[in-house]
Design goal:
Elements: H1 3-17, H2 23-35, H3 48-58, H4 61-69, H5 74-89, H6 98-108, H7 112-121, H8 125-133, H9 139-146, H10 152-190, H11 195-220, H12 229-281, H13 292-299, H14 307-319, H15 321-331, E1 338-357, E2 363-370, H16 378-385, H17 390-398, E3 402-428, E4 434-439, H18 447-465, E5 470-475, E6 479-484, H19 487-498, H20 509-519, E7 528-533, H21 542-553, E8 558-563, E9 577-581, H22 588-600
Helix pairs in contact: 1-2, 1-5, 3-5, 5-12, 6-12, 7-8, 10-11, 10-12, 12-13, 14-15, 15-18, 15-22, 16-17, 18-19, 20-21
């Protein structure tokens, strides 16, 4: 999966299968995360806790730092952000106040006569309600969850205030209506309309207005008044709901902060691991284009990988350029296979020529007729100089028939002619995989062991960099196999090999058999084998030799790099090339020269 596909898949999965809000809002969230820009809460219609979290995540210094150094990690961090949003969504589902919410709903459903009984029994209606309707509740549970749900001195005061305000509002409306009616009656009396009856109505209105004003005065002077139990119940419910909602919001804020803190702490740990890995792997790997590779390692058993050992071998290659050059030669020995393909190309031919400019005056070519006064022949000028022939001159001038010198100018010019032709072009195919067999017997202990490990490390580095398959076989009296295919799986395997001690006898047969088996698989069909050994082992059996010869006819090559001068030449006859390196007497330059000569004249 390429990076673009991987990126789109993460956003699509969040939009289609995410739990946060609804699909439409998830699309908006995905767009915000994709843009990776802080968005003001007031400009977003997405729930505040999600916008705050996104902004906090994007503006975090640790996160900004790793994206600045490695932009490819932004998509993985987007994935982490989606995980965090999903965790926040789960806070909506659970609350420690669920029982109290249920209790409030039951209180809302009380009938009026049930509520009156509670109110008459005790001013603390909720406590009375719980003990009466839930008599089996344990004292400890009550004290921990429901005791002091509301401060009823405060509630009663608020109830009085709310009901007084409500009564005052109603009374003032009644007073205003009474004033309007009084004005209408007065106008009717002025117009002599049913004066007797209107005077009676007017007295009633004035009496009513007086009663309303007295009641308003009583309320405004905080005097006790009578009010309905329905008003009391609604006031208690309203106060209870406000307090409960506030507690739930506070709880949610605390839980969100805890989730964010815990999540970011874990993320910071992974980021620190990534930074360390990037630093240690930088000399080993160049391509980090696949954003999931190192994140996967940071969550796995990466800490079991001995990065100091990687750093050590990287420094060896950096310091010993000849070792690096040797590894490059061995890694590139198998030339990339090519095939010819026909390609069309456009051939452009340039043709030189002259362009005639008739208005130019560089070359005299003859005489012509015109009205050009600058280049007249003398005979024409003679006509103009005599009064008798002057009219003839003017006539010829008007008809453009005056004889004059003719000039031209030639300018260099060119034209292009395009033709389409075909030609043969070499097309480079896959460079092919490596199979590396390293002798880990006791006779290789010491300098040969160190040399073999450095070469194995360098070739694996080349394979990973060029995205080529690599298979490592270590052999002594038995064999161990290490498939080195990608950075996630190959590093632990490579480290395992580099940490091995070389001991035991030597039997190359099983190693060659395993290499032959691998060459008959899809992944290693075109592989070459390089054996690094001191050559102290016996000949292969006839069956294995026959299989080797068959593979040679298919293009596979078998090469050996012999360390020392004690090899069994008969045992190595099956190899196409046997390069030798005696570190006691020879330099790496000679080995490099020998291998270059082989590459030049295979």
């Amino acid at each position: 999966m390429n990076t673009a596909t991987y990126t789109n898949d993460i956003y699509e999965r969040f939009i289609r299968f995410g739990k946060v809000a609804n699909k439409k809002e998830r699309k908006k969230i995905a767009k915000i995360v994709s843009d990776w820009e802080i968005i003001p809460v007031e400009k977003s219609n997405i729930e505040k806790k999600y916008v705050d979290t996104i902004n906090m995540f994007i503006s975090d210094n640790e996160i900004k730092d790793i994206i600045k150094k490695n932009p490819n990690f932004q998509i993985e961090l987007s994935k982490k952000l989606f995980e965090l949003l999903e965790n926040l969504y789960d806070t909506d589902k659970t609350t420690q106040y669920s029982e109290e919410k249920q209790l409030l709903n039951n209180f809302k459903n009380l009938k009026e006569d049930e509520f009156i009984d509670l109110w008459i029994e005790d001013d603390n209606v909720i406590e009375t309600f719980i003990t009466k309707y839930y008599p089996d509740i344990e004292t400890e549970i009550y004290n921990s969850k429901f005791n002091n749900l509301l401060d009823f001195d405060e509630v009663n005061e608020k109830i009085d205030i709310k009901i007084v305000e409500k009564k005052l509002k109603r009374l003032k409306i009644r007073l205003e209506n009474a004033n309007k009616k009084e004005n209408e009656i007065i106008e009717s009396i002025k117009n002599n309309n049913d004066i007797t009856e209107n005077n009676k109505i007017l007295k009633i209105i004035k009496k009513t207005k007086k009663e309303i004003k007295n009641e308003i005065n009583q309320l405004e002077n905080n005097q006790k008044l009578d009010y309905s139990y329905t008003d009391i119940q609604q006031s208690i419910i309203s106060e209870w709901e406000n307090k409960l909602n506030f507690k739930i919001i506070q709880e949610e804020i605390e839980r969100i902060d805890k989730i964010r803190t815990k999540f970011l702490k874990k993320l910071y740990e992974e980021i620190e691991k990534l930074k360390k890995m990037l630093e240690l792997l930088s000399p080993f790997m160049i391509d980090f284009s696949n954003p999931g590779r190192l994140w996967d390692m940071s969550k796995g058993n990466w800490h079991n990988v001995n990065f100091k050992l990687i750093q050590k071998y990287s420094e060896i290659l950096e310091q010993q350029k000849e070792l690096q050059e040797l590894a490059n030669l061995l890694g590139k020995y198998r030339r990339a296979e090519t095939e010819l393909e026909e390609e069309e190309f456009e051939n452009i031919e340039i043709i030189n020529k002259f362009k005639i400019n008739h208005s130019g005056k560089s070359e005299l070519i003859g005489i012509t007729e015109s009205n050009d006064l600058n280049h007249l022949l003398p005979t024409e000028l003679a006509l103009f100089s005599d009064l008798a022939t002057e009219s003839i001159f003017f006539k010829r001038y008007a008809e453009k028939k005056l004889q004059s010198y003719e000039f031209i100018s030639k300018q260099k010019d060119y034209e292009t002619r395009k033709t389409t032709e075909t030609r043969q072009k070499e097309k480079e195919l896959d460079k092919g995989p490596f199979i590396l067999a390293i002798d880990t017997s006791g006779s290789m202990h010491g300098q040969p062991e160190h040399f073999a490990k450095v070469i194995a490390f360098a070739i694996t580095k080349i394979a990973l960099k060029e995205k080529r398959k690599a298979f490592l076989i270590s052999f002594s009296t038995g064999i161990e196999k290490f498939e080195l295919t990608n950075i996630k799986n190959s590093l632990p395997k490579l480290i395992e090999f580099l940490q091995m001690s070389f001991y035991g006898g030597t039997d190359a047969t099983e190693a060659v058999k395993e290499a032959v088996n691998q060459m008959q698989t899809k992944n290693y069909k075109k592989a070459d084998l390089l054996i690094i050994t001191d050559g102290i082992f016996g000949r292969l059996d006839n069956t294995t030799l026959k299989r080797v010869e068959n593979l040679k006819t298919e293009g596979n090559k078998f090469n050996s790099l012999i360390i020392g001068q004690s090899q069994n030449n008969l045992a190595l006859e099956f190899c196409d090339n046997n390069w030798t390196y005696d570190f006691r007497y020879e330099t790496l330059k000679k080995l490099i020269t020998d291998i270059k000569a082989t590459i030049k004249n295979p």
